[in-house]
Fold these 2 entries.
Entry 1:
Amino acid sequence: MAAALRIDVVSIFPDYLAPLDLSLVGRARTDGLLDVRVHDLRDFTHDRHRTVDDAPYGGGAGMVMKPEPWAEALGHVVATRDASTPGGPRLVVPGPGGAPFTQARARELAAEPWLAFACGRYEGIDERVYDYAREDLGLPVSVVSLGDYVLCGGEVAVLAIVEAVARLVPGVVGNAESLLEESHEDGLLEYPLYTRPRQWRGRLVPDVLLSGDHAAIAGWRHQQRMTRTAALRPDLLHPSAVDGRVELGVATAGDLPELLTVLHARGRPTSSESLRAGLATGTTWLARRAGRLLGAVRLQEDGGTLRVAAPVLVPDLADDPVADDSLAGQLLQVAERTAVSGIRELVVDDPRPSPGRARTYRRAGYHRRDGRWVRPLVLHEARRDPAAIG
Ligand code: ADE
């Protein structure tokens, strides 16, 4: 049976990739889930010194990787395509000048049947190699960066990227559920974890985790994730995909015509009378940028429940999963922030959300219950036991 993902790595230090034999990736290789092949770039040189670099045209410090060995190496990789990988690989070139490597990109790469990594060294690879790969070999090319710092070469980045990608390949991680609940999978940092003993050096496990109340635990964990993300990575809560400042405000009668148009365009036609009546019985929040309406959410209190209508966005944003996630997420945050103290849970009525929207609800702390999305509002604090001595 063909492996779920084939990975070729070209490097002048093939030994650097030896850790790909270990741990999760190593086991996935033995299990036949990953087909990893490492190539030595110097095998594609033809001079006595196996030269792979030369001085840069135009001057400057350092050396540049020559195009010829790269063309041969990539040609060799492509020529080994087989029935399970009939197209060419996606070529991934790690480098500090690339697009940020994120969990979303890991997911994208994990969905490919074949990845080829080109590990640059020195100052980088002759630019024409990228054009050659795209134009002559017909490969999609992505340059990706691990972060805003400079490594000595792409090998360490490949180890990191392959590990992040491999664990998303079905079957590689035994417990698929553990993939869902972790940092970055839905754009938030992870909640704190505890195991036995319950009391350790004067520190107690938060009571809520011992309560057996699953909704309360989910609520506490979400709260922890939001607090941590706000403190350590506030950028994650305001993704730049929706650029420019989004202003949130409560709708008034003057907003009705625009709101009607958006609802109509999104397949939720309503009359101006029922919208007007809705303004009197609940609150409708609008998101605008530079005056332009982007989306809306309607909230209505019902005993201890705040009923939240599925956020509606203008068509071009709703069609863009990243923008939809960002804006719908911001509108759900408004719902959470404006919930008065008697509210115990938020309920979104959206029985058949798109996969992207379902992810947004989960990311906002909602879980599915009877065809609705429910978000309990509970706050428990971790506490120290003053009587316990460390
Ligand atoms: N190669 C050199 N620096 C790098 C970085 N920051 N990310 C990925 N690959 C690199």
Entry 2:
Amino acid sequence: MKTGAAMKQENKQWKKNDSITLKIEDMTHEGEGIGKVNGFAFFVKDAIMDDVIEAKVMKIKKNYGYAKLIKVIAPSPDRVIPKCPIADKCGGCQLQALSYDAQLRFKEKKVENNLRRIGKFEDIPMLPILGMDNPYHYRNKAQYPIGKDKEGNPVAGFYAGRTHAIIPNTNCVIGAGENEPVLKEVLAYMRDNHIKPYDEATGSGLVRHVLIRVGFATGEIMVCIVINGRQLPKSERLLDRLTKIPGMKSISINRNKEKTNVILGNEIEVIWGNPYITDYIGDIAFQISPLSFYQVNPLQTRVLYETALSFAGLTGEETVWDLYCGIGTISLFLAKEAKKVYGVEIIPQAIEDAKNNAEINGMENVEFCAGKAEEVLPAKYKEEKVYADVIVVDPPRKGCDEELLSTILKMRPKRVVYISCDSATLARDLRFLCDGGYELKKVQPVDMFGHTGHVETVCCLQRV
Ligand code: SAH
């Protein structure tokens, strides 16, 4: 082991604030540029592949360092001017300076690299990524923090990357166009009635966040005001303003009095309209409440689900298990073409939503069960010898539990459709399934989150 002194010696070529010139040769999966000086790698936020930049050393670790972009000396051919004026300060988007085409290539490469490096796959059946027609204003959900500016006026905006300072901005370029008029009315109501924004440091003040959801297929709007208290004073004045906005269907308050980063509390009170809005993905209707989980990019969600459905290869005779089913969105898509679909999800409230969604769509061939996929499926297999022609999994970033994957291997479905939001854990799990008797047939990346480093992937596995 090296002593601290020896380590320091290794990197004494650089110290904080040194100026360096870098050619960006690679990018991390989070979208930071990587450039090297004498073989020593620096990570630089907002620098993109093929840029030549001037940067300032910020931090030196043993084998790599972090630097700050000072000036682009020679821009990459893929560099564009971000549409959002605060893209470099806001924590939300990482890739706005990269052309959308180059973003898509970056995401394809990320999936392929992980399958190669972690999954040890060689001939990968990659299909070209399915990108968005319009990579702007695609999000149907926004949660704007409320704070105040230097003059003490209420503002809505975004947290500066990695901090909790609010940068005012009511028109996020990836958010719905409906957000801005809603926020303007909420801020005007607060100003006129002297309603105080919440102050994280002291825990005083009232309005913490404004949650806005828009049904893209229906135009229905939901607004939920998160407050550090019980009531919104003179709330009728807020309703007067908000209900003039076309499409407004649901206005509620959510009580959150905890000193926490968690945005929503558990208590919701509807103060106007319905407790939910309705939206459609394809021809299936969903009722969404402020607390429900719902995919944030409904247009690409449809693309993702159509892909999953086609990979499932259903004829109407199949029994399908949809694991990590959320509010049953994929289950209902599959149920149109299967004999029977079973959905499993850990959050009981989501299962309630799933049952309700099945009912409003008149679908009787689906059953939902609350529990952990890695407990429910093994138990049902052991006790009831349940059967599946096709198993669909859509786990969170950490991927599937090994107990679940082993049960899938024992159940021997003809096909497994794996939907993933993290290609590293996807690669690990695909390797496990392929070592257990499955063949990787198709890999379809789908871009659901333009301008961020995230990529969704649907894979089709066939029993050998
Ligand atoms: N398929 C759904 C949701 C996917 S997100 C859709 O497309 O909308 C992943 C889901 O897995 C979340 O709803 C999360 O609550 C659930 N989840 C997380 N861990 C789980 C586990 N161990 N077992 C079952 N569900 C789980």
